[in-house]
Amino acid sequence: MKKTLVLVFITIFVMGVKFSSEAQVLEPSPRDGIYDRTTITQMQPIPYVPLREADVIWSKRIWRTVDMREKMNQPFYYPINPQNGWQSFFNIIFDAIKEGSITAYSADQFLNPMTYKEIMDKLEKLVHIPVHDPDNPDIVKDSLVREIFQYQDVKKFMIKEDWVFDKQRSQMEGRILGICPLRDLIGEKGEYQGLQPCFYIYFPECRKILATKEQFNLHNGTAARLSYDDVFMKRMFSSYITKEENVYDRTINEYTLGAEALLEADKAKARLFEFEQSLWEY
Q1: What is the distance between the terminal CA atoms of the chain, rounded to a whole angstrom?
Q2: Pick from 168, 138, 185: which is nearest to 53 by CA?
Q3: DSSP 3-state assignment of 1?
């Protein structure tokens, strides 16, 4: 009799566990599309070709600025809010810094790391705004409010890169070293005070993450999207040179402004092209 009761209790227990486990099984969420897009998420960055110092017969360091408001560069800026499997470039970068996947630095020598909190303390400043006294609306008081930083406040970024000629491969090549987001610096009276560098990231460190993040393809929609690493390696962006390595260590805007600065940037770009072309005979 006792054995029969034990068997009955065991059977009831097993059936109860089975029913409870079946009740906890959740149906998969509907797929937003007609196929699973897994190619980008499984990608790895293509390694750089090894480069020896003895093979570099010429090099030039360049700083250039990318304006994400230009039509060709808009996939870097949009979407403002992540959707349909893709994010804006700096949404990816800031999130990676926040979780510790990417290291931010205070200068382009990549010597002094910055934490996410230090970056936010730098970008989110206290501003004075007038506030009416709730007890007496005729009285206006000065109040300090923290200005919240939004990723979309960054509309430009600077690229630091080295151009070299490799005699072993007979090839001119540019390699990106660092990226620096830039935001407009606005004074308390609303006046424009120039561009503020936010921080610097070491591009080779970021490639593993950027290779798994897709960018919207302006020419082919949702099909055959490129990763952000592909876009940088294929140089599928528009930019203008703001500094060329020089003995004075000064930017173009430090010795010329306006249209003359644009012409000087075009001259620096032309010098790169003409050097490569002058190496060959046709």
Answers
A1: 103
A2: 168
A3: coil
Half-sphere exposure of 122 (CA within 13 A, CB side): 15
Q: Which two tokens stand for residue 260?
A: 């003359």
pLDDT in tens, 120-147: 988 887 666 677 777 777 777 777 677 7
Per-residue pLDDT reduced to its tens digit, 222-253? 666 789 999 999 999 999 999 999 999 999 99
Identity of the residue numbered 29: S
Other CB atoms closer than 10 Å to residue 180's CB: what's the count?
21
Contact 158, 197 (CB under 8 A): yes
- Whole-number Å distance between alpha carbons of 122 and 110: 18
Is 211 in contact with 44 (CB distance < 8 Å)? yes
Q: What is the DSSP string of 100-163?
A: TSS-EESSTT--SEE-HHHHHHHHS-EEEEEEE-SS-TT-EEEEEEEPPP-GGGEEEEEEEEEE
CB atoms within 10 A of CB 153: 15
* Least confident among 172-181, 210-219, 234-243: 210-219
Q: CA of 191: how far to CAs of 150, 153, 185, 186, in Å?
A: 19, 16, 9, 6
